[in-house]
Amino acid sequence: MKGRGSHANTHTDTPVTKNRVLRILRTSSTGYTITEVMIFLAVTTGIFVMVASTFSQRQRNTEFNTAAREIESQVQDIANDITTGFYSSTEGFRCTTTGPLSDRVPNITPAPPGGGQQGTSQDCILVGRAIHFVGASAGESYNVYSVAGARRTSVSSDERNVENYNEANPRAITAAGMVETKQVPRGLTIRGMRIGGGGGTVINGVGFFTTFGAAASANPTALSVNLVPLTGSTSANMESAINSVSDATPINPAGGVVVCMDDAGTNQRALLRIGTQNSRLTTEVVMESGTCAAAGF
Questions:
Q1: Distances in Å between the alpha carbon of 110 and those of 10, 90, 93, 157, 176?
Q2: Which positions ≥6 away from 17 have C-beta within 8 Å?
């Protein structure tokens, strides 16, 4: 009986053990199928692409925002220069006036060697600065002009300092080295500039011109800078626009002027508002979704 029992147990256990071993060997040798591996790789790649795309988009949005703030700071500095009387250079030109004393016209020429100090231009005063956004579709650079005017005039044989733009006869200073060219920050494309914003009158530049004479004396607490919209698609046209500024020129528009910049890769735009909020020196940047074309620029 003992022998038969031992034999019976051996006969019963052997197939079970053998099947279990075969299943283990089959699993360890087979592993994942090619289909399973491909699915795993596809899912992993998709997740990676989504994460990388999100990170890249956020980085580009941040760079766009930073660039818009940078150009705002540049424009604000130019405006502030008028209130402080700071001009980047006064040694690259000589300014004299021609014509009768009652209608003096600034005559600006390149400075002779060693003779460009401001004291040699005592016939003139510096009355403002103007920004011209060149080639708006390219958005690569913009020009900044300093503007001179006649210092003295004569009214009824009474000689005195000029008191308005008609008497000053403003002229853009275009002598070599006197026109500053500034780069538009990387990532921005300037699409257009309008009075008041999208749908407003198209302009290409803006001037910050000082107030002086009787107008300034009559109200000492008033802002000392006027905002002057300028139209001129080329450098020559812009110079003509600056030289044509007079007391009849529309200044200080109620809605200010707005420069629109965008980046097609981010589908967002930055509106640089100048002279809004009842202040001719105020600048602010408003970020919006969409392109400048969609906003009427």
A1: 115, 11, 4, 32, 7
A2: none
CB 187 within 8 A of CB 170: no
Q: Which residues contact 291 (CB under 8 A, 6 or more apart)?
A: 191, 262, 264, 267, 269
User: Could you report the per-residue pLDDT of 215-268, keeping only the tens digit for each?
Assistant: 444 444 445 789 999 998 888 999 999 999 999 999 999 889 999 998 867 788
- The tally of CA atoms less than 13 A away on the side-chain side of residue 246 is 7
What distances in angstroms separate CA 138 from CA 59, 103, 202, 215, one per listed residue? Answer: 23, 40, 17, 40
CB 123 within 8 A of CB 151: yes
Six-digit token string for 231: 């139209």
Tokens of 181: 């060219």
Taking only the tens place, the pLDDT of each residue in 114-171 is: 555 545 578 899 899 999 986 544 457 899 999 999 999 988 888 899 999 999 999 9
Using DSSP's 3-state secondary structure scheme, residue 118 falls into: helix
Distance CA(62)–CA(184), nearest Å, equals 16
Ordered by start, the domain boundaries in the chain are 1-30, 50-86+129-145+181-295
- What DSSP character marks residue 32? S
Nearest to 125 by CA among 178, 77, 171: 171
* Beta partners for residue 209, in sequence order: 128, 226
**pTM over cut 0.90:** no
Handedness of CA 290, 294, 295, 297 (dihedral sign): positive
